[in-house]
Every structure is written in C-alpha cells, then in structure tokens.
Design a protein that fits this description.
Layout: E1 4-10, E2 13-20, E3 34-42, E4 48-50, H1 52-70, E5 76-78, E6 82-86, E7 91-96, E8 106-111, H2 112-127, H3 138-141, H4 144-147, H5 152-179, H6 182-194
Antiparallel strand pairs: 1-2, 2-3, 3-4, 5-6, 6-7, 7-8
Helix pairs in contact: 1-2
Length: 195
C-alpha cells in the first residue's frame, strides 16, 4: 500500500507527515492516522525527522517555549528529547537528542521568524482534518503561575509606570510655583487698566 504524504508549509519551514489511513475507522484514502514518519525541513538547517512518539514531545517543546517567550518568562525548555533556550532576543538554540545510543545531539540556531514559521506548521497540522493525531498537550504542562495568576513582577510592571508618571508630573508642575511672581502680574494689570 502506498503511504500518504501531507505537507504543511509556512515561508521557510515545511512539515511533512507520512502515513496511512485507518480503514477500520472508516477513514478516506487520503487521510493519515497511522503516522510512520515525519520530517521538519527548515531552510539552511539540517533535516529533523522521527517517528510519531517524537513528534508530540517536540511540538509540546516548541509550544511551551514560545508561550514562555510571550509571557516574558525565562525562555528555557529542557527534556529528554529536546532542549530550547534563548541565546539572545533574536536567536534560539535548539538541541535535539537522539533516542539511539552513541548519536551526538543535533544543535540548531534559529531566529524569531523561523521559530514562528515552525509553530505555524504545527498549528496547521493540529487544525488539519486529514491528519488524526493526539492534540498537543502543552497547555497542561504550562505552570499555573503562567496560566492563571499574575506574578509580583507583572503587577509591579503594570502599576509602576503610571505612578512614576504622576509623581514626575507633580514634581514638574510644582517647580512653576517657584518661578511664578504674582507682583509682576499685578503691575501688568495696573498698566493695562490705566489706559
């Protein structure tokens, strides 16, 4: 039986899913629910590929990492299969660890645009009606502090700028009191009234 191939593409990243339909679930011939292989091609980077058991954790890693970036948390994700951490604001280090012994980890550096394109491909896969996979469980892995609560740092960042601006406005306007001379105004009024 010929395996189906589906491509999910965004700018410089392509995700290829290879597999078969499950005819016992009355699936169509062009669907995939038995994934035998997947390939992630990022332009000018080594090919990333694996089996179904690798796809879920890698998708989760990208989702969790990007969520940490968005929420201004420390962007570091580490697991047995993949590590992602920020080199700086624009470069992200990805370390892919092989499940086979004596295979060196694959280290890739990507920018923000490639990170965004990769996540977009994963989003397309999650939304596709032609591929049946277990949806990413990244929401369950995000710490409660990020999901539900406001940290002290976020509260301070929310209230501190308005307080500083009000204090500086009061300080700035109070300096005019020292430069205002009411006697000069009285003399001006007298000159105007005499005419």
């Amino acid at each position: 039986m010929i395996q189906n191939r589906l491509l999910f593409h965004q700018s410089s990243v392509t995700l290829e899913i290879i597999g078969l339909p499950d005819f016992s679930n009355n699936e169509y011939q062009d669907q995939i629910s038995i994934i035998s292989q997947w390939k992630l091609t990022i332009i000018d980077k080594p090919l990333i590929e694996g089996k179904l058991e690798h796809l879920g954790p890698i998708m989760d890693a990208f989702y969790i990492y990007s969520n940490l970036l968005i929420n201004n948390e420390t962007p570091i994700y580490e697991s047995k299969l993949i590590d992602i951490k920020a080199d700086n604001l624009y470069i992200h280090n990805i370390v892919l660890k092989s499940s086979k012994p004596d295979v060196k980890p694959l280290i890739i550096k990507i920018g923000n645009s490639l990170l965004s394109d990769t996540i977009n491909c994963f989003d397309q896969l999650n939304e596709s009606s032609k591929v049946r996979i277990k949806k990413s469980s990244f929401i369950n892995n995000i710490p409660k502090k990020i999901r539900f609560g406001l940290t002290k740092f976020k509260i301070l960042n929310f209230f501190l700028p308005p307080i500083i601006s009000i204090c500086s406005l009061i300080l700035f306007s109070s300096t005019f009191i020292y430069f205002y001379n009411p006697i000069n105004d009285k003399e001006k009024n007298e000159l105007i009234n005499t005419k």
